[in-house]
Amino acid sequence: MPRSKNPNSIGSKMPARGAGLWSKAAAISCAGLAVLAIAGCAQLPGTTVDASPVSPTVEASAPVSESPEEVSVKVMNLFARPDEPEQRWYAEISPYLDKEYAIEAEYIDPARIPFDKILSGPVMEGDAHNPQILTADFKTNAGAWYVELHQNAPGGEWLVGGIHQAP
Fold this sequence. Notes:
Blueprint: H1 21-40, H2 68-79, H3 86-93, H4 99-105, E1 118-127, E2 130-140, E3 143-151, E4 158-165
Antiparallel strand pairs: 1-2, 2-3, 3-4
């Protein structure tokens, strides 16, 4: 006669006496957590040997509006580069231009710009009736030039509407 197996002995596939739904759920949960822990460790920040520590979240500050003087100086320095390749010249100056002047500037050949040095400026001149329109006068090694600037809304960014040789 075969001996009956004790359900409480080691190696038994039967749950111990009193093992109900809760103990089965606990066993399944523990097994699932073990699998997740093993499989997911490499995906958690800071758990691998060569991972850099997680840095705190940094909120971006509000963009700083540039003054019309700053914009005019930047644009004149970008404009006054006759030796710059056309595509690079345009790519670097175009973010400061309004839409209409950006279209015109695509056809400017930087090699034809007659100056490469700004000697003085800007001297800002405004419209008494509209503070959102300004001109910035510069002296260059090829005479006087001016930059037309405007804002689309009060407090908005200053855009260039044209760069011209003074009459």
